[in-house]
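During the reporting period the student researcher (J.K.) took over the structure-prediction task from the postdoctoral fellow and processed the backlog of single-chain submissions. One of the processed entries is reproduced below for the supervisory committee.
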Amino acid sequence: MGGGHVSRPDFGMAQPDPAHPLTEFYLLVQQALDKAGCFALPALYASLQAPARRIYPEEAREYLRLAPQAGEGFVRLQAAVQMQVLYSSLQVAADGAPAALLLTGCAGSPDQSAAALAPAESDRVVIYTSHKEEVYGPIVKEFEARTGIWAEVVTGGTNELLARIAGEADAPVCDVIFGGGVESLTAYERYFQPYACAEADLIRPGLRPADDLWTPFSSLPVVLIYNTKLVSPGELTGWESLLSGRWSGSIALADPTVSGSSYTAAATMLCALPGDDWDQLDRLAVQLEGRVLPDSGDVVAAVAGGSCRVGVTLEETALKRQAQGADIAIVYPEEGTSAVPDGSALIAGAPHPDNARAFLDFAQSRDVQELVVSQFSRRSVRTDVSDGDALPPADELALIDYPVRWAAELKDAFSARWPELLREDAPS
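J.K. obtained the following structure tokens:
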């Protein structure tokens, strides 16, 4: 332990075997340490009685005594110290067996407060993210390890975090928004500062905005899912099928006024179907029977658990749960779907702009983008990173031309009208 950093061994390397008896214990300790912030270590004193002869290792305990307080003949090895956990990391052997728990922190006197132990402002970055911890966790922690920059992470829904950024515009707290569909980011672009990341030229064509007010992180097709025990193959085929009335009251969709991914899904449906946008949204509200889920992470769980028969989510979420054994199947809508990237952006007036740029560069690096594919079941936005064999080739999907600017401009009107549609169509 100390002020330095060590590279996280779990970044693209062996993961702990969940079946190993020590894994759960180590993970519980890790979680506790990550939440603790600060904790105290007692002083350590030692008394050594020099042996008169050469001794065997197993005899050493007879000549060495350790104690948390001073005594006659004892010398101090370590003063009492207050530790601040910057991050903890589970180290594993090549076979996945948990080997050790590594910590980094900073030391001080026992009476030092957490504030006193906080890193210098020049070594900080504040990140607002809508990503789940399984995504942002390894990226943020490896960024800390490689740069020595301490990251404060604030989590929430995309729209919630963007509204917070807008509210803080006169005195920005956040440096980087990390996550959220780019149409949601575009709607708040007046709060961002342009930045072209270090390897922006390697971003896939069509994914990089001309003004560089946001940077794409991963490409995320919208998909439909169904419970394989309750629905037969071919019953759910696309958007019209979803709105047919067959699934009334049994469609899982997160609230699109809160969830950026659900808003992208709703806007994708409007792009794929002909007719008046508000009429189509009213059709959707009718089929939902006025009910939406609070979080996008609840959609797959609702379908897999059978409380809903079908749902609307992102490809990566469905693929990950499917690989875990969830009873779901994936449908790419026959009328077409979008593969809108989520993104990151530098906040205008960010208190730590240089560190924010360093994080944006890191999120676009080849190391992270390879992790996007291998660990997150997402599609990379770099031309030099393949999507791999686990994902259907993009050219086999019926992808629509998704108008980001239109979706961004629609957002305010949508957020105002959508609650009314839900109330109107809720069962009496």
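The committee noted the following: The domain at 220-339+401-425 is CATH 3.40.190.10 (D-Maltodextrin-Binding Protein; domain 2).
J.K. will present the remaining backlog at the next meeting.
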